[in-house]
Design goal:
Largest sheet of chain B: 7 strands, mixed
Oligomer: heterodimer
Structural class of chain B: mainly beta
Number of helices of chain B: 0
Order of helices and strands of chain B: EEEEEEEEEEE
Shape of chain A: globular
Largest interface: A-B, 29 and 34 residues
Distance between the termini of chain A: 41 Å
Shape of chain B: globular
């Protein structure tokens, strides 16, 4: 069965420090990988995606993610956290070559940046 | 802003009633998907529409149904509402193709009492 795991319900980081939000997946083949962010009472905003190529993907708001095929991981990173980064982050996967573009989401990680 | 708009933003229904949620897709997008996000959980795929046809469905019962119109706007209909249907319902539009990211609306918060 396809699944996405975000092992940490919450990550707490001091402003200015680097942050990492972890994600592992279990999907056959070479899936497409995504990160979305959700602010309170809002929908999901696209941050970045990995399709193929360079394992380090750069996205919006200074975020980047590192794809590791052998570990089936796609961790979200940022070199220097901002208080405004505090939100709920979702890792997601989609099977390639599928006519139905179903996205499978993880359970989410709440990122809290303290001043 | 993503260009995907949903209405209404909130509504309260009684168990057993029927509800219709609406979504206007981002211009140029031909695919719309609906997701249910229960409190404290990630979004769950309900179904997807492409060119007005259902093109994939998640583990949701038939009382969840949908429509996509020629202008690519969409509706989600839920019959015989149950208390567990209380959730945030998200509409996402995209281009057909697995590599295309989906753009989400702000959601409709449905409360069933």
């Amino acid at each position: 069965a396809q699944s996405v795991a975000q092992p940490e319900d919450q990550v707490n980081v001091a402003e200015g420090n680097p942050l990492t939000v972890k994600c592992t997946y279990s999907v056959s083949g070479n899936p497409y990988l995504f990160w979305y962010v959700q602010y309170p009472n809002r929908g999901l905003q696209f941050l970045l995606k990995y399709i193929t190529g360079d394992n380090l993907v750069k996205g919006s708001y200074g975020f980047e993610a590192e794809f590791n095929k052998s570990q089936t991981s796609f961790h979200l990173k940022k070199p220097s956290a901002l208080v405004s980064d505090s939100a709920l982050y979702f890792c997601a996967v989609r099977k390639p070559y599928s006519s139905a573009s179903k996205i499978i989401f993880g359970s989410g990680t709440r990122l809290s940046i303290r001043p | 802003e993503t260009g995907v708009t949903q209405s209404p933003t909130h509504l309260i229904k009684t168990r057993g009633q029927q509800v219709t949620l609406r979504c206007s897709s981002q211009s140029g997008h031909n695919t719309v998907s609906w997701y249910q996000q229960a409190l404290g959980q990630g979004p769950q795929f309900i179904f997807q529409y492409y060119r007005e046809e259902e093109n994939g469905r998640g583990n949701f019962p038939p009382r969840f149904s949908g429509l996509q119109f020629p202008n690519y706007s969409s509706e989600l209909n839920v019959n015989a509402l149950e208390l567990d249907d209380s959730a945030l319902y998200l509409c996402a539009s995209s281009l057909m193709g697995g590599s295309a990211e989906a753009f989400f609306g702000q959601g409709t918060r449905l409360t069933v009492v």
